[in-house]
């Protein structure tokens, strides 16, 4: 930017907003030194300006009138940290239309209204940046967009939700049940009171939409792909796969190009323990990007939290100050993506767990159904104790078509000797 | 850049140069689409323009006269890939003085002549970029400099040499001796005929100099810090630490701020197996960056090789096209680093292996010496078989001052019952 002094206005003084204020309190000299000009946090707007946020705010900075930011001629960059669709969208559009650059961590809004937001930014010749929206503090969107720009991206997959990863890690380490770990996570503040968004994969899906658009140039709304969470996982599944098969269980968002199609999906996935992603534990996130020249690159760090997210938000502000005219973030990519493949077309290995009466002929029936649908078995494990009426059967398939697997499972489910819900988990190779 | 068409000249048509040509052959449409203008590889200069490099080059592109690049008014960006100090330095300075941006993968040159190169670039109002010089294809310098710019960097440490990591991985997996694995690595092309540069830590040191300058604003020449390689490591050390102590051995470059001092060093290091770096194997590199707000971030990928390195080189070209005026790469940081600490001042845990005659009183003498130098013992393991005359003794210390440890080792070495060289390996906690 040409100006000698840059003024930033913050809208939303919640947890992450307090993190941004904290960065300015502690590192403003560093920011100004790097920018080569004074960088000020000039205004902080929130409806609630009386609660103690645990950080010092200079008198006169706080306002409960958002227009003191959005319509303030002195403000160059607006940080939006209120989250959700409205009034966040209205505020962002107003800022853009007032020729202010916007930095946002709002993945829901960006994933849903991508085109409109990018268009309005472009029409007004300003930037909208959102590094913090995916992977929290991890530098992820910039490397994907810029550092790896010599590559055709082949696949993007990773652990994008800290709450789900914390729960799966604890289930694996302690053998605890999902509901018990969820409660513990809620007590520790790692999970929301209503955890649906995180544990059912919606948060991962929104992040994957953004990564997919940047990596493959294809915008895919959430209703167009398979999103499945971790609430049905049992510690038995995790333990068996860990000890007997050498797999870790992770909730993955996966987008990859197959010929000219895009495969995009969110679901719990078994990963070989030799894969670096399987060592990413607790609330940490990590995303694997594979390019045709660079090969695999993994970016790891804290995917959420006050300080890490605020780091990405302020990093975006500096990037705008340095590169006001940069347009790469919205740039097209030579993706040649035609179709988005339905998950039925997925080719994968599968883990199938079912519960059956321990009677002669059950395995014969099950293997017959699998065979009929062209699903070949890599291993089958039946581990009952003497006298059990019902025994768990765990089947690992060779690579099969998901549509066929679903048909087979439906038929197996209808067998009179098979009880309870059949658990199906995809295996990443 | 304002121009509608950007011409890039390549100096050095070796392995990585061929990778750059390959990227232009396969992905030029993508590069131009992302840049919003035509991006051409306009000239390729090398003394040898007759050897087959395995890639197609358009007629007229090749020249054996470097000045057809350096003095060509149509060339906007010069890629230097000849390596070494001269004539690379002369060529780069000429390009900069001719107002051409420069992209280089030449870590030796940049680490040694940092100040001169940056100054000449600045005087001529052009950029010099060198993402490929550290961590090959991994986006590393840009995230450190830009994405994490809201942070005071606290530490930078990682696996920066693929050859050394390949050797240590194989020694750990197969229990093989250093020299045998080195030979295998040479046969596979993972190690040079003269491997000194990689296995003795010099390559890691040069990369660490660059990271240190960017992260802490402090340029430290290699002669001012401790650099130690892996050639004295035995499979016994690796195996014992893996099975008995839960450590992996890695060659690490480490730079961290302690109060206002900078600690910088390269040496083999035991890392807890729970640390993600310990799962980085084979020729892969990974660097941990810790910032005061973002916490730990790890960036992982191929640290060398034709395609990965070429990816970073071409990525730098695009970054220059997008942000011709960006100056952040040379920006100062508010490091407040005063002194570079000598390794004698290091506080660390240590692994000490020695060989002693199995006689009464030996352990008494050793433990007395350690105690005298304020070194307390966390564990001591003496594992002889009955009848052995000489037995290995492995001592793990609590955190101690390296200067004291060195004095103790000297005294232990002088004991008449202690034989062979004493092995000292630092432990990262």
UniProtKB/TrEMBL annotation, chains A, B:
Record-annotated ACT domain positions: 351-429
Q: Which family does it belong to?
A: Belongs to the homoserine dehydrogenase family.
> Corresponding gene?
hom_2
Task: Write the record's keywords in alphabetical order, separated by commas.
Answer: Amino-acid biosynthesis, Methionine biosynthesis, NADP, Oxidoreductase, Threonine biosynthesis
Q: Which Gene3D superfamilies match?
A: 3.30.70.260, Dihydrodipicolinate Reductase, domain 2, NAD(P)-binding Rossmann-like Domain
Q: What is this protein called?
A: Homoserine dehydrogenase
Q: Which GO terms describe its biological process?
A: methionine biosynthetic process; threonine biosynthetic process
Top EC category: oxidoreductase
């Amino acid at each position: 930017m040409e100006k000698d002094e840059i003024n930033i206005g913050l809208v939303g003084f919640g947890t992450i907003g307090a993190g941004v204020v904290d960065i300015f309190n502690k590192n403003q000299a560093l920011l100004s030194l790097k920018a080569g000009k004074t960088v000020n946090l000039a205004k902080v707007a929130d409806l609630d300006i009386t609660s103690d946020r645990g950080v010092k705010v200079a008198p006169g900075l706080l306002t409960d009138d958002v227009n003191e930011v959005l319509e303030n001629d002195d403000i160059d960059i607006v940080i939006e940290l209120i989250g959700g669709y409205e009034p966040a969208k209205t505020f962002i559009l107003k800022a853009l239309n007032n020729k202010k650059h916007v930095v946002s961590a709002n993945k829901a809004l960006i994933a849903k209204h991508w085109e409109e937001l990018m268009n309005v930014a472009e029409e007004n010749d300003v930037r909208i940046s959102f590094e913090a929206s995916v992977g929290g503090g991890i530098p992820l969107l910039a490397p994907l967009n810029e550092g790896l720009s010599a590559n055709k991206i082949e696949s993007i997959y990773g652990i994008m939700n800290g709450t789900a990863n914390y729960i799966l890690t604890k289930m694996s380490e302690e053998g605890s049940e999902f509901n018990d770990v969820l409660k513990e996570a809620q007590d520790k503040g790692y999970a929301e009171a209503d955890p649906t968004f995180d544990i059912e994969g919606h948060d991962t899906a929104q992040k994957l939409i953004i990564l997919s658009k940047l990596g493959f140039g294809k915008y895919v709304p959430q209703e167009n792909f398979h999103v499945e969470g971790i609430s049905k996982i049992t510690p038995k599944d995790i333990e068996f796969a860990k000890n007997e098969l050498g797999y870790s269980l992770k909730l993955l968002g996966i987008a990859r190009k197959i010929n000219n199609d895009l495969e995009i999906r969110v679901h719990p996935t078994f990963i070989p323990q030799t894969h670096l992603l399987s060592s990413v534990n607790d609330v940490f996130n990590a995303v694997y990007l594979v390019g045709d020249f660079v090969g695999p690159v993994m970016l790891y760090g804290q995917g959420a939290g006050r300080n890490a997210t605020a780091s990405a938000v302020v990093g975006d502000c500096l990037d705008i100050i340095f590169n006001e005219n940069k347009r790469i973030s919205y740039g097209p990519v030579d993706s040649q993506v035609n179709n988005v493949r339905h998950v039925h077309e997925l080719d994968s290995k599968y883990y199938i767990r079912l519960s059956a009466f321990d009677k002669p002929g059950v395995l014969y029936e099950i293997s017959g159904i699998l065979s009929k649908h062209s699903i070949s078995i890599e291993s089958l494990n039946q581990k009952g104790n003497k006298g059990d009426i019902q025994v768990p059967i765990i089947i690992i398939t060779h690579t099969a078509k998901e549509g066929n697997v679903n048909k087979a499972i439906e038929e197996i489910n209808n067998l009179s000797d098979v009880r309870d819900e059949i658990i199906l988990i995809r295996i990443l190779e």
